[in-house]
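Hi Prof. W.,

I finally got the Cadherin-15 prediction working! I wasn't sure whether to trim anything, so I left the full sequence exactly as given:
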Amino acid sequence: RQHEAPRRVKRAWVIPPISVSENHKRIPHLLVQIKSDKQQPGGVIYSIKGPGVDEEPLGIFSIDKFSGKVFLNAMLDREENDRYRLRAFALDLGGVTLEDPTDLEIIVVDQNDNRPLFRQDVFTGRVVEGAEPGTCVMTVDATDADDPDTDNAALRYSILEQGAAGMFSINATTGEICTARPGLDRETMGVYNLTVQAADMSGDGLTTTAMAVIYLEDINDNPPEFTKEEFSMEVEEQAAGVDVGKVFVHDKDLAGSPSWLAKFTILEGDPEGAFAIRTDPHTNDGVLSVVKPLDHEVRDRFEMTVSVQNERPLEPSAPASPRALATVRVRVRDVNEAPVFRENPRRISVLEGTPPGTAITTYTASDPDTHQIQTLSYALLYDPADWLQLDPHAGTVRTKRELLHPSAFLQGGWYIALVLARDDAEPPLSATGTLSIEILEVNDHAPQLQPPAGVLCGRPGRGGTLLLGATDDDRPPHGAPFHFQLSPQHPQLARNWSIARFNVTHAVLAVLAELPEGPYSLPLLLRDSGTPPREQQQLLNISVCHCGRDGTCLDGVLAAATAGAGITLGALMIILGSTILLLVLAGLGAARARSRRRALRKGLLQRSRDDMRDNILNYDEQGGGEEDQDAYDINQLRHPELFSPRAKPPLRRDAPFSSGTPLAPRKLPSSPSDIEDFINEGLEAADSDPSVPPYDTALIYDYEGSGSVASPLSSIVSSLTDEDQDYDYLSEWGPRFRRLADLYG
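And this is what came out:
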């Protein structure tokens, strides 16, 4: 049995990878020579295809088709293309493939032709001041476009410059920046600028630099301090709510931060709490202000101890220090102050009827300016009844005229006056005091009998009584209750008359024995309840009438003539009932008349709607004042045939009811064509009537003001022609004005 021998590999046609350095400058450069084992008479034709030959980028590689030499025609850049894969072909002169295509791989060898690049030009980091060593702040990083598998891209980091302190270090491999030693103080240096470097070839190759900016964050490690130990200020007395001055402080911490903001406290020297101190948020200084008015005469200077500290407590790592203190001296400057009425209002009591010139009080003010020599003067600022006079120097108030009850100037028995006190400073200041004077009631009037006369039946029992009353000009408690009694000087009156109390202001006079008809005069003694009481004897005129069975007077004429304001109890009830009945009847009559007037107006308006020929429309009845409600009946003009001369002349409704018929009654026209004569005759009759006022004359009803938006009526006849008038608006007034619109429109 025959064994097949293995096929022989043609080594000449298998091409190993070819390496060429980037940036090779000797161009053209022979890379390799390919050769086919199948030599043909006339030779072999070689060709290559792929990127760099017939594909982009074109023209980098070429081949000698007869010798099979492959040349490099351009410089290579590994960062753009690190290898090229080509295909090689071998053909005879007829174009027949002699060998299968073989691969030709060209590897671009890297050179260190790229510097490292930081990802940003400036790196920023923050760390609190006083941070412990080893506290990491930030990481800087860079890149290198060279082959990462070679030292060409092996980067190392370093700090080139950071100042003399050397407070930071950097990890050479990772680029992490950390604190290297303690002592970071923002108040000493708040910002660190580091220059960092990145180098390839493990630190021995190409380099690049960047900036690393590190900010120190503030902590409260510095207490505030006053700029000096003492501050002096001054303020005017009586000033409140004003700023006196500032106390200045300095804090090394970051301005505007909570670690910088100060808080002030007044420790001593202001027991009354007249001052307050606050912090100016912009400058951090303390602003001292007055919250209560100061009085120079009471205290002219203050010396206060003020402390300051931060709103936020100090960090434990901060050095211990005592709280800052300062002395603040405030001088109170004296100014002119207005006088003061210590008793305001001043209330006094004066008896009514006090004679003029009586001193009732001395109302003075005091001047708070005890360190200044000033004189006060006084004047009456308000004295509505002109009852008082005032001494301008001593402030003594005297009566100018008698003070009496009642008066429109009294308010609940009190009279109010205002006194003005003024000093003589420049400029002068004044104060107003209220003087309230109570006018005490004095029992200076005796009660008066009301009524002083009356009528009663002269028979004891029913009807033989009369209600008596009294009035007193004095106010309580000097008035009622009143005491009525028969005059003690005439004891014989008690045989026929008696008086019994009815209430605090009235009494009942009764007949004890049957008396003949006729007039009687009874002396009565009336006394009030004042202190001391006032009494007065007065005469009561009594008319004794003839009595009826029911105890009423039969002689009504005598009773009406002599009763005056005094009446019997029975008569009083009858009169009251009659008055109420009359009022009811009058109201019904007025309502009925009003309804008739409305019905009449409605009828006239209805007829005017039916008769479009009317030139006079009943829009409203103005009349001649209160007595002229419906002066003329328009029916006389519409239907003159209904009013014949033989009929009774119509009564003028504008004439008083007590007036007689006019001396010259109107004569009605015989036909409508005589309406003008009829009106003229009626006017002449009204003017010649002496029994009634001339209601047909022009009357002034009311003044309605000026400036009306409507044109005055006089403008209709203000010109001789109608050229200036525009009557087109008459056509908008409806059918009743259509005739006028046709004439004037």
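The chain has a mean pLDDT of 79. Does that look reasonable to you?

Thanks,
D.
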